[in-house]
Sequence to fold (124 residues):
Amino acid sequence: MAEGRRPPSRARVTTAVLALALLQVACLHHWQERREAAPELLAGKRPEIIRVTLRDSSRVILHQPVLRADSLWGVVSDTAVAIPLGQVAHLAVRRAGASTPARIAAGAVFVGLVVYFAAVWHPL
Fold:
């Protein structure tokens, strides 16, 4: 083995595997555009997070959205924000992807391979 080079420790391998697993889970959701207007979207089961596309094509992610009078209220970066309904072009809600089971299986295989190769890898 070359001077000064050591094989990766188990802690580093574990950290890398956990980071990859978290990345995989984060990729399992997508935004689904909704056709209904804000009052109809928020009337039923209220989503925790919505993406608001404004008329100028900018996007805002609102946490805990509510409808008050003619404005859509929510929290952005710990600040309460009101968006007039006249400025809203589209709404989207966060949903689990249709291919979620396939992605989970592929992610599990990938993480398994990383763990296997990390366990048997010995640098020269």
Remarks:
- The helical segments are 10-26, 38-43, 100-120.
- Residues 100-120 form the longest helix (21 residues).
- Residues 19 and 118 are 14 Å apart (CA to CA).
- The mean pLDDT is 78.
